[in-house]
Design brief:
Distance between the termini: 24 Å
Helix content: over 70%
Radius of gyration: 20 Å
Order of helices and strands: HHHHHHHHH
Structural class: mainly alpha
Oligomer: single chain
Length: 246
């Protein structure tokens, strides 16, 4: 059995990929449903208090999906990727792998499989949210949804690469995942600076809502930085892990 099949089976048999699919599938249903029925829910439980709620729209439904997906799904992706990329957390397994192949060969399937599982889970969720929005409210912009989803998928690949970077700095799986989430939150805060925001990978997240709402495409700088920083993070993780003593 080669390392690629081993990583595939590990992701399937430990139910981690099903956890990702379940999370993104759940929030994909929750987003359009919330956008459609929230005014009625607020009206019934508001107790006579007038609360302003935006009218249902496909843009709101897809924005609800993205917001929930990033809040919950990104944390799940970080932990799933950390459990794979922080392989030195298990000294016995790390010794077994390192004495039989190179760090590069160990990491190749782990990066690829985790990126693919994150991207596929998000895209399936986005398709479900699109279909439910079309059914309950109206059809979102198809072109904006497709391009926006691909940009967020690139951001998720960047998130997995950042996870690998921290896996090369600490040995703990929870530590790796929490540092990854903290770094991604920090990038989002840094994006509050107008001059810096277009150059950050986190700007790809905002592209989802903007493109579905009909905005023009102006995210080449964020795409370039996401690709460049992802490659850099992966290369650094390989360099560090090759020189780490188990």
């Amino acid at each position: 059995m080669n390392l690629w099949r081993l990583e595939y089976l590990r992701l399937i048999r430990t139910y981690r990929v099903w956890i990702l699919l379940g999370i993104f599938g759940f929030v994909a249903v929750l987003g359009p449903a919330t956008a459609k029925y929230l005014p009625e829910i607020v009206e019934r439980v508001g107790g006579g208090v007038e609360i302003a709620v935006p009218d249902p729209s496909p843009e709101l439904a897809m924005a609800q999906y993205l917001g929930n997906a990033l809040q919950i799904g990104l944390l799940a992706i970080a932990f799933v990727a950390a459990s794979s990329l922080a392989f030195d957390a298990n000294a016995e397994m790390a010794t077994f792998l390192r004495t039989r192949t190179t760090v590069t060969k160990i990491l190749e399937p782990r990066y690829a499989v985790n990126m693919l599982s994150a991207v596929v889970s998000f895209l399936i969720g986005s398709a479900v949210a699109f279909a439910l929005s079309a059914l309950l409210i109206d059809v979102p912009r198809i072109g904006g949804t497709v391009v926006g989803s691909l940009l967020v998928a690139l951001y998720l690949c960047f998130a997995v690469a950042v996870t690998g970077l921290f896996a090369s700095l600490v040995r703990s799986v929870p530590g790796t995942a929490l540092l990854t989430v903290g770094a991604l939150i920090g990038l989002g805060i840094l994006g509050l600076i107008p001059a810096v925001r277009p150059w950050l990978p986190s700007d790809l997240v905002g592209a989802y809502d903007a493109l579905i709402a009909g905005a023009g495409f102006d995210y080449w700088r964020a795409v370039a930085s996401a690709v460049f920083l992802s490659i850099g993070a992966i290369a650094f993780s390989v360099y560090r892990l090759e020189r780490r003593e188990v």
